[in-house]
Amino acid sequence: MAENEPGQDFHGADDPRLSALDERLREARVKEAARTGQVAPDADRGYSQGNRVIAALIGSLVGGALIGWCIDRWFATGPWGLIVMLFLGIAVAFRQIIRISGERPE
Full-prediction pTM beyond 0.70? Predict the structure, then answer.
């Protein structure tokens, strides 16, 4: 069989054209998966988890403080509603951060 005959078996992928084609196909699959949202690219995985941690921390603290302030205004309890709800917000934030850090990015 001649070297470039159709139907020749390329088990070793010695042809640089095939290697380049395989690499381009791999890159195209990764880009398409990232575009459709099936799989995040490697650089964005940690960034995404970091954003979730920041959102959990800020959201829990602000939410707890806001609810505590509202309780203080409605029931005239002084700073105690704010303080208690702020600490409760901190506890919820840490619980969410621990849960997020235990997840593996896919």
Answer: no
